[in-house]
């Protein structure tokens, strides 16, 4: 995430990851405030066992695209709600990537962060049959929890 202030949003990504027993690490990395840390993080991640990166940032959100530019790993982006434009600035600055560098952008805010965790697990499940089984069971539990009536 681009700032510690993104954590209340980005913590939502950890919920499905924990439920699906997917290990993860967190880091504060900013293209603007810690550019050297960004270069090291993005260029080294695929060498230390990381398989998917979830990048959340708000406002002038260059982080996901910059990570994607420097890493061969899939980058899932979360536009964090901003103070002045409620996340529209975050969304547009993340989603409008130039052809040739791909970022998988999720919805703005907490739900987007939650789905980023799910999407990461689904990507990882392509090479992990046990994780895929856990995902299928997770989906079935979710379906069972939706009541048929509003009473
Ligand atoms: N968008 C970026 C980047 C980046 O794109 O590299 N670095 C920090 N930020 C964002 O600035 C917002 C305000 O940060 P502060 O609350 O620390 O002032 C955060 O949402 C963060 O993601």
What is this structure's SSE topology?
Elements: H1 7-19, H2 35-44, E1 53-58, H3 63-70, E2 75-80, H4 88-95, E3 104-105, H5 110-125, H6 129-144
Parallel strand pairs: 1-2, 2-3
Helix pairs in contact: 1-5, 2-3, 5-6
Describe the structure.
This protein is mostly helical and 151 residues long. It has one domain (4-144): Rossmann fold. The protein has six helices and three strands, in the order ααβαβαβαα. The protein has helices at 7-19, 35-44, 63-70, 88-95, 110-125, 129-144, and strands at 53-58, 75-80, 104-105. Strands 1-2-3 form a three-stranded parallel β-sheet, sandwiched between helices. α1 runs parallel beside α5 (110-125), α2 (35-44) packs across α3 (63-70) and α5 packs across α6 (129-144). The longest helix is centred in the C-terminal third of the chain and has 16 residues, at 110-125. The N and C termini lie far apart (40 Å). The mean pLDDT is 98. The structure holds the ligand Nc1c(C(=O)O)ncn1[C@@H]1O[C@H](COP(=O)(O)O)[C@@H](O)[C@H]1O. Ligand C2R is lined by residues 2-3, 5-6, 30-33, 57-63, 80.
In short:
By secondary structure, this protein is mainly α. The protein contains 6 helices and 3 strands. The mean pLDDT is 98.
Q: Walk across the major sheet and give the strand order.
A: 1-2-3
Q: What's the N-to-C terminus distance?
A: 40 Å
Which word captures the global form?
globular
Q: What is the correct CATH architecture? A: 3-Layer(aba) Sandwich
Give the biggest sheet: 3 strands, parallel
Rg calc: 16 Å
Structural class by SSE content: mainly alpha
Mean pLDDT: 98
Strand content: 5-15%
- Estimate the helix proportion, in percent: 40-55%
């Amino acid at each position: 995430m681009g700032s510690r202030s993104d954590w209340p949003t980005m913590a939502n990504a950890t919920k499905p990851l924990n439920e699906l027993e997917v290990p993860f690490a967190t880091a504060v990395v900013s293209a603007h405030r810690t550019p050297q840390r960004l270069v090291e993080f993005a260029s080294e991640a695929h060498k230390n066992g990381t398989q998917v990166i979830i990048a959340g940032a708000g406002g002038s959100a260059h982080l996901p695209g910059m990570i994607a530019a420097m890493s061969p790993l899939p980058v899932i982006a979360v536009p964090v709600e901003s103070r002045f434009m409620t996340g529209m600035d975050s969304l547009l600055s993340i989603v409008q990537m130039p052809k040739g560098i791909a970022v998988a952008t999720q919805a703005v805010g907490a739900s987007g962060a939650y789905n980023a965790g799910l999407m990461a697990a689904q990507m990882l499940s392509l090479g992990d049959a046990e994780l895929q089984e856990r995902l299928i069971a997770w989906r079935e539990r979710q379906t069972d929890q939706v009541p048929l009536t509003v009473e």
